[in-house]
Amino acid sequence: MENDEKKPDSKYGDSRKFDPNFKGPIHNRGCTDVLCCILFIVALLGYFAVGILAWSQGDPRKVIYPTDSRGQFCGQAGTPLEKKPLLFYFNILKCASPLVLLEFQCPTTQLCVSGCPDRHLTLVKAKLGSKEDRDYYQQFCKDGVDFAEKSPPELLRDGLCPALLMPSKAFTRRCLPALGTLKGGVVVVGNETTFDSGEGVNINASDVLEASKKSNVVVEARQVAMRIFEDYTQSWHWILLGLVIAMVVSLIFIVLLRFLAGIMVWIMIVLVILVIGYGIFHCYMEFASLKGEPGADVTIRDLGLQTDFAVYLQIRQTWLAFMIILAIVEFVIILLLIFLRKRILIAIALIKEASRAVGHVMSSLFYPLLTFTLLAVVIAYWAVTAVFLSTSNEQVYKVFNNSECEYSRDTCDPKTFNTSNVSAQCPDAECLFAFYGGETLYHKYLILFQFYNVFLFFWCANFVTALGQVTLSGAFASYYWAFKKPDDIPAFPIFASLGRALRYHTGSLAFGSLILSVVQVIRVVLEYLDHKLKGAQNKFAKFMLSCMKCCFWCLEKCIKFLNRNAYIMIAIYGKSFCPSARDAFFLLMRNIVRVAVLDKVTDFLLFLGKLLIVGIVGIFSFFFFSGRIKAVEDAAPSLNYYWVPIMTVVVGSYLIAHGFFSVYAMCVDTLFLCFLEDIERNDGSAERPYFMSQNLLTLLKKSNEQPKTVD
């Protein structure tokens, strides 16, 4: 370590000078970045104004209820359509039109009905049939139709009734044909492969299948979503139990680190290697067991996208891919441990020191709960505002037709359409509800309100994160710069640090958060452009977009790193954001070897801790939900996809472990910066003693001189 201590480059500033009055976070400080604080408050007031405006204009019912051709909500309480919750398509075959994919609207009349048709019946047969048939058919015609007086050609010409009814079932509040398959894969509708359309043409059931799929563009995705929802209803209590276990394991791990940091780190390293090794072994056993099984040699590419994800586990290539990925991860971890074995000892000492700091500031373990709560409020406000903004448009009607018409897709008014020039020139044209939009000043600036909502979401979320970082770093800095630990540690360091951050440094936190938010919003815009250009053939544009995405990803990571260290300096010295960021950057650059090796090694070890907790909980949840533990096989719920609760538990376990370890990570980063300052400020003499622990002094081959006694 002595070799690391080279003379610092003057271009990164001079080393810290000894200050006999410096005893940790400065208490006599003033407000910083006041202009940015005012800007943040004004932006928040504007955010509240946008929310109030959106709530007054928006209507979330548009998300919940389907709308008919006039834009009325089917099944909405307190309206004439309250008892008609389902949407019926006059001609489902028209939903096979490419227009559906472009405008998400079938070019056919849509009607709210109380129930879906349960029989095959044409308009002609209904007119010639019994009174019961006529009454039954009339409920699927437009309101106010004189069904008895008008002839079938007149009813069809004016678009008042559908040409036929076919057996249907309600799916996502829409009447879709009751499709089925016979042996051999023959598609049927109500046990019939073909049937009369009511217009003298026979319809194939397979054509209806295609139209049904396109009538709801996301029908397959919704089927998967429904199955996943069913799995959650069956397993939610077991998922909660798994998350509680993850929380208990994380807490036990943190407590053990407090007393057995060195042993726990080595145990953690060995267990991570063993857990990944077992994963490799399990994947190999599954791979070997599928040898010779029918269909097991099919490739993932040939299989394509399947809604039943369990199918992928029945082919050998899936397990081979898992095995290769885990083997690469295992190899990289072992390689890093071999090359960094000497630095791991110093990193363990730093983690031990962090364990002592957390032990003396136990309230820091509960601070993430405040961060999670504030982030939940920010996310909820953003989501609610986004829903109200997206549903605050008015009904827009357009001309839909089958033949050539110059007015096609023009805006129209359904009240005057039948008497307008359009209906005269285009007899088969209809004025149907297309989407929600508007021509008012509010609607013209709606996209700006949406953008403002997204931008303020990032700004507020980053501000909450920054507040947590400053609060924790201020508390842990108070621990480090206490010469006699724990006697010199101030009372309630977390509350004192939080008070200083809010009282003096709201502007600095807002400034740092603003810079990060701008970069994140640019990344969101680039992702949006990338999504829009997926079908483009311009290779150069795709290449440039990919380069920009990569550059801004790197920039975001750099800004997060600089912000984190700037917040530590703000917590200690109480300066503005820019001077704090400069001081932190120069301090790190003067000690670049230690930063590149020691700090990253501790991050790697803490990441292994999170990986271990996730691995333990994930393996147990896999064996439980897949029914492989015989003792509790009957208790395991019956699921469509057993990976749904497993992935939920794994992701939840990682977030919980990250919440606990984020305190440790902030503690390590704070102690590391304080440690670098300690080396620059002091030399171990009686007048300038080091503040670091005895373990760190021993590892660095340094010592504090004992004060001379006077006889």
Low-confidence segments: 1-8, 97-104, 181-190, 212-219
Query: Proportion of β residues?
Result: 5-15%
> Could you say which structural class the secondary elements and strand pairing correspond to?
mainly alpha
Number of strand elements: 12
Describe the protein.
With 711 residues, this protein is mainly α. Helix content is 59%, strand content 7%. The chain has 22 helices and twelve strands. It has helices at residues 34-57, 61-64, 99-103, 123-128, 131-138, 152-157, 205-215, 219-289, 300-303, 316-339, 341-360, 367-390, 421-425, 441-444, 446-480, 493-504, 506-532, 539-573, 577-590, 592-625, 643-681, 694-699, and strands at 86-89, 110-113, 121-122, 164-165, 168-171, 174-177, 179-181, 187-189, 194-196, 202-204, 394-400, 430-437. It has a two-stranded antiparallel sheet. The chain has a two-stranded antiparallel ribbon with strand order 3-4. Strands 5-6 form a two-stranded antiparallel ribbon. A hairpin with a 5-residue loop joins strand 9 and strand 10. Helix 8 (219-289) crosses helix 11 (341-360), helix 8 (219-289) crosses helix 20 (592-625) and helix 12 packs antiparallel against helix 15 (446-480). The longest helix is centred in the middle third of the chain and has 71 residues, at 219-289. The radius of gyration is 33 Å and the shape is elongated. 32% of the residues are buried.
